[in-house]
Design goal:
The chain is of the alpha/beta class. The chain has one domain (about 35-60, about 85-225): P-loop containing nucleotide triphosphate hydrolases (Rossmann fold, 3-Layer(aba) Sandwich), CATH 3.40.50. It contains 6 helices and 11 strands. Strand 4 and strand 5 (about 70-75) form a beta hairpin. The protein starts with a strand and ends with a strand. The structure holds adenosine-5'-diphosphate and magnesium ion. Adenosine-5'-diphosphate binds next to strand 2 and helix 1.
Length: about 230
């Protein structure tokens, strides 16, 4: 119980109502432990993104419970924790399909800013950012603006940005979609390494079967339900 990073209990999300109603999450249950990298594999439309958004306190579930590090943050009827923004900023790292880099900041600044937001001094933030950019093979782009780098490079910068402040939970939505197989595997290896070294919990959702080797657990998602491993 103590080393649980995430617990979802009977999570349900229904978009719309009446004829346009879509049940995106039917009754999803999942547990993620410290140091574990889990993959949630499922076809497009199975509810993967919705689940991550609920976990990230971005989308409000319709019913169910969410616990993060043993603390209940959602129970049918509402968020239990007041400061969701702070929870997101300090404890979570998001890697989304659309990389959302800030266009008027350099690659380095895009990464540094995530670290400064949680109070890391500039110099230290820069050192950490360069280390990650180097590991992800985009250090040579540090001074570039996002519009002048490739999609795959931008995705790796976004990954560095999600990791730089040392989150305890990393939520990754199809993080390898824009990468070739080798780079994709490298990203998975990096996430795994972080999980083991720092006790971070990592959830990667993907429809890409090629990427699932190397995960501690693979959950399958279908029509809004998480089936067993
Ligand atoms: N904001 C929304 N409003 C209405 N329906 C949505 C919304 N977001 C997702 N859906 C629907 O919910 C289902 C699950 O979508 P999603 O969570 O994006 O799945 P996945 O990430 O596995 O492709 C789909 O049928 C999708 O069309
Ligand atoms: Mg999705």
């Amino acid at each position: 119980m103590n080393n649980e990073v995430v617990r979802l209990e009977n999570l349900r999300k229904v978009y719309g109502s009446g004829e346009t109603e879509v049940v995106a999450l039917a009754d999803a249950n999942m547990i993620l432990h410290e140091g574990e990298v889990s993959a949630v594999l499922g076809p497009s439309g199975s509810g993967k993104t919705t689940m991550l958004m609920c976990l990230g306190c971005i989308v409000m579930p319709t019913a169910g419970k969410i616990f993060i590090r043993g603390e209940e943050i959602y129970e049918t009827g509402g968020w239990k924790k007041r400061d969701l923004r702070r929870l997101r900023r300090e404890k979570m790292g998001f890697i989304f399909q659309a990389h959302n880099l800030v266009p008027f900041l350099s690659v380095l600044e895009n990464v540094v800013i995530a670290s400064e937001l949680v109070g890391t001094p500039r110099k230290e933030a820069e050192t950490k950012a360069m280390e990650l950019l180097d590991y992800l093979e985009v250090a040579h782009r540090a001074g570039n603006f996002p519009a002048t780098i490739s999609g795959g490079e931008a995705q790796r910068v976004a990954i560095a940005r999600a990791l730089v402040h040392g989150p305890s939970l990393i939520l990754a939505d199809e993080p390898t979609a824009a990468l070739d197989t080798d780079r994709g595997k490298k990203v998975v290896a990096l996430l795994k390494n972080l999980a083991k070294k720092r006790g971070v919990g990592v959830i990667v959702v993907t429809h890409d079967v090629r990427m699932v080797e190397g995960f501690d657990r693979v959950y399958h998602m279908k029509d809004g339900s998480i089936l067993d491993e």
